[in-house]
Amino acid sequence: MKIKRRDFLKLSAATGLAAAAFKGSTLNALAEAPQGAIGEKPGAWMPSTCQGCTAWCPVEFFIQDGRAVKVRGNQLSKANNGYVCPRGHLMLQQTYDPDRVLTPMKRTNPAKGRGIDPKFVPITWDEALDTIADKMMELRKAGEPEKLLYMRGRYSPTSQELCYGTMPKIFGSPNAISHSAICAEAEKMGPGYTQGFFGYRDYDMAKTKCLVVWGCDPLSSNRQVPNTINKFGDILDRGTVIAVDPRLSASAAKANEWLPIKPGEDGALAAAIAHVLLSEGMWSKEFVGEFKDGKNLFKVGATVDEAAFEEKQTHGVVKWWNLELKDKTPAWAAKITLIPEKQIVRVARTMGKAGSACAVFMGPGVAMTPRGTYASMAVYALNGILGSIETEGGVMQSSSAPTDKFPSIDKYLDDLAKKSGKAKKIDGRGAKDMPAIMGGIDKKEKDGKVTESAKANVVTNNVANGMLKDPGAIKVCISTWTNFAFSGTGAQRWEKALSALPFFAHLVTNASEMSQFADIVLPATFAPTEKLSIITNMANLHGHMSIQQPVVKPLGQAKPEETEMMWLLAEKLKARGFANLFDYYASLEDPETKKKPANAAEFIEIAAKISSHKVWDGKDKMKGDQLSGWEDFKKKGIYNTETYAYKKNWGKFKTETKKFEFYSETLKKTLGLFAEKNKTTVDEVLKASGYEAQGELVFVPHYESPKRHGSEKEYPFTFIDYKSRLNREGRSQNTVWYHEFKKLDVGDESWEDVVKINPADGKKLGIKTGDMVKLTSTTASITVKAKLWEGVRPGTIAKCYGQGHWAYGRTAAKDYAKAIPRGANNNELMPDDYDRLSGATARNGGFTGVKIQKA
Amino acid sequence: MTTELMQAAQRQSDAYRLLAACFYQPDREMFLEENLCANLAGLMQEISLPAVAQACRRMAQSLAENSQEELLVEYSALFLGPFGAPAHPYGSVYLEQERKLMGDSTMEVLKFYADSGVKHEGDEPPDHIAIELEFMSFLEGKIAQAINESNQAERADFFALRARFFNRLLASWAPILGNILKEQATLAFYRDLGECLVGFIGAEQQRLQKSAAAQAP
Question: Which domain holds residue A733?
């Protein structure tokens, strides 16, 4: 906050105000105005969108006198029925967090590291962007624009294209890195390589007779919390809820059956359930097909003649049985999973009875583990056997509202950008030991010739390794809404990598561990209350497009990163002789008025209108809601699509066979293309990437034993991490409500960060509730409070993700100056490892062995 | 008598304003050129607060001795963070149970501004210590003006507004902030600014109590 007028510092005698005609004092931040009324106007609900988890709920804020005071779901939303979950309310405290970054700042202490005060001082946006543009131009002048790295955390699915999808490309860097592979990408491998759908699923929970929540806790997180809360009770009335989770989650606590599986053994349980469903003849005849003579030949241990079975919507069920399932009996699985044989059979029969109205709701717990791709395929394939793909009560592919893309950037790419844009990416994707083939086959057509290759997906957490391996590879980094030095496993690697980075600008709402290493910290708008953008998502069989808008004036000098900051940066680059980015932005056109943006504010609005215009411009008759124009859309804040049509992709799944593939021809072809490019074999790729399967088994969902860091002898406990229902992508820990209401997470305590240990283990170790314990993995130790709790089985310990901030605001961090965290960060304990087929970070499945000592 | 009263109100107005200026991002050159701390010391001396005046003189010395960057680093560390400022400059952080910006107390501040015929211009929440001190300066100025114009009704209105704003809001948290500065600042400028704030607000509390007693029917 700067003094605007020098008179403010003067004595009134010196400014003539003490003369006889005294007219009051000199003002600086205040100005005389007619007397107004505050607190007397009625206020109004204004629509926007929450992005606290992946549900991206359409919401409304109640605004009084320019202040947001209350939150609810958008009353017109079909995805959340007008409700938010508990985390939605935390947006008020996030918006008004006193520790938000309110002004751009620059570091004055060149030394970087944990516990070293960066000595940040305020600067103007102008100075900040001048510095960033100078650093960027140095790269272009040196002919090495590929040394620019842009990393994004939370983003808008539409305007991200103007930043992540455009800025690095036009500048000439291939290094645009998304956070997604530390989130849940491996989960998409199951539906991807069986059904050709590499996305998050929707569920017909209004009709489901049996809901199997597996490796997730949809009452708390992932991926449609308000909808699940809304429907869960009815499912319990109507049928059965089964929860597969090593921890007694909120869903497990309410479920009819809880299967506290040994961490990482999900593939074994899925194989056994599939075995029961097939051997007991409970597969869907409509979806899978039938033996030609009607006689079930799926008998324990027996190989079946493929010709004996006639499949309908699926491919390879007999191959799958022969290669994997015939010996995977419940008795076999019981020994591995620690789930009693009887319970496995009972659960399989309950699922089989519900048939195509049984939805297996799979989450990251199954998949975000080394070798997780196959567990994901195995669990997801149960939906295939049950025939619950796109059926009443079953599992849907996603619905989406029609967005429009921004114009092509091709003509704004200069020769340098074209050349350096093809440089090797810093995250190591596509190497023989990191296939990262989440997404399947990439088909490109040029001059009538089709070329096919394996898609290469981001390996976010490996960026730190890439930077450490080649310290000169990245010289300038811009990152928005990220905190990988906290949120990536093996978090300490990021600290090392960022310490050595020559220049780093970090745009965030709150300074965090990553900002500790920044040269410039920039204030971000808190998106749900201060940023204009268009957000799309789905739930409850409807897709939606919802507006995210400044329902209040941004605090301090906060700016949205994808639009305003990019526009201003482009202006700076233009002033330095590189106009391509600016020229591209300036070429955008308002779909209504055809006007091009003349300034940042116009650019922001035009971008939002381009993304959304199909739903409100009246040119096409929409199948969902009818809107009368941009103003109507802004007022209502939402467009809901038509209801998902059952069976709409039957016969045209995006797999190689167009069928649901139990034997994945799609994976076979993708891996084949990948191996060919790397001049090796599929088996070698699998081996290099740490998988156990070889030969034909590679192409079917199958059991892989869990990889574990640390021997059971030295590290006898298996650590599991989970998410709080108050977690807002790791950003809510500076709100007092997070801590006050932490006890809403089953087994947790308010204002504490406890590790939960089974009482039997506690007795053996002489540990009681409230004792401080030191947890040690192969790579690090953390110290936390113990709580004895029966919600984990002996041998497994659980702790919630989110706390352990050592550089954050005053609620999240215990003592920033001394780098003392409040609680402890699980990501320091867990080493970095990957499900290498997807490129996803391992964070589930008990891959971390720990020992427990009294602290 | 009227002239004396008017001059006293003007002095208070100046004292509040110059104190407010010290809470802005430091501009060493401008502060030195305008003799900010020396003038503030003079005002404090005139209003019989010798210890506070002494603190202001130490601020002047610190200003002379410390560089712009030193002042800026200290100002940022105390008031801006960005990792959670120890001396948050916003009233609501101290007055609200939920430790937030734009709380009910902030809206009350806005209401005071609106009722008094001023509005806040800027991106910051309106209950920043500098803005609240500026508002007090404005009120004292209005009182001086009312005295000068012999407008008894207006004088009484601004007396009442001043008492309510000061007692309900500013005085409820400014001493806490002042004490944090006294404890946490490493440069004399900000340590003594804390001293100055605590001393001045404390003296104002007594002055306004006396004033209220004198006004009482």
Answer: 717-854
